[in-house]
Amino acid sequence: MEAQRCIDLNADLGEGFGVWRMTDDDAMLKIVTSASIACGFHAGDPETMARCFAAAKANGVTVGAHVAFPDLPGFGRRALPMTPPEIERTVAYQLGAAQALARYADYRISFVKAHGALANLAESDAKIADAIAGAVARVDPALTLLAIARSEQVSAGARAGLRVVEEAFADRAYTEEGRLAPRRDAGAVIEDIAAVVSRVKRMLEAGALLTQGGALLPTPIRSVCVHGDTLQAVAMARALRAALEAEGYSLAPFAPAC
Fold first, then answer.
1. CA torsion angle for 245, 247, 252, 254 (degrees, to 10)?
2. Which residues contact 102 (CB under 8 A, 6 or more apart)?
3. Does the predicted model carry a pTM greater than 0.85?
4. CATH number of the domain that 193 lies in?
5. How many domains does the chain have?
6. Does residue 97 sit within a domain?
7. What is the pLDDT of residues 138-163, one digit of tens each?
């Protein structure tokens, strides 16, 4: 009998502030198996974080800290001139906030994921990737690092002695080098749901990232992300989950095997 295939489906949530909400967190938490919760630097605040952690617990969704540059006006998508030690302490600060609010909601964070410009820089800059992984290892080495597949984040997590889970993006295009295409480029954000479902199935079957030019770059993929800040996020996540289950995948948070 063929072994059961497992995959994690994640989304970046808690991306609100005060009365403003970007995503339908409650709907997404009924679909995904893990969620990265904003820690207050690119989005999020104590009320939003506590609400998301409580809702995630109620839905059995694994949660993580979504760490970023301190850039609320730019939604964390602007690279700030910070040194690696400053980045390390900034990440540690956000982990503390996430751990405290999760505990307040009688839950716990299990992983860490970098957001926006911080994540993009850590794709190719080993020093920044090491700063993120180093902060995680010093604060709580039991946390998993959710890392962009084929990036310096994967190597940095291994150097820090962390468990690493490789992530592919359902709704983002990849360059021929296997990097995320800059959001300013046409086609970098994929909005067509059918196209998203098709490319994710192809990447998982091939065990590879699919580039804009059609190349397949081999990598483990153990988590697939649907961004929560797009207009069709809920419909896209729902369609992707249904398609994966129809293909025989078991959806589970970072399960190494079923």
1. -150
2. 49, 53, 63, 108, 109
3. yes
4. 3.20.20.370
5. 1
6. yes
7. 999 999 999 999 999 999 999 999 99
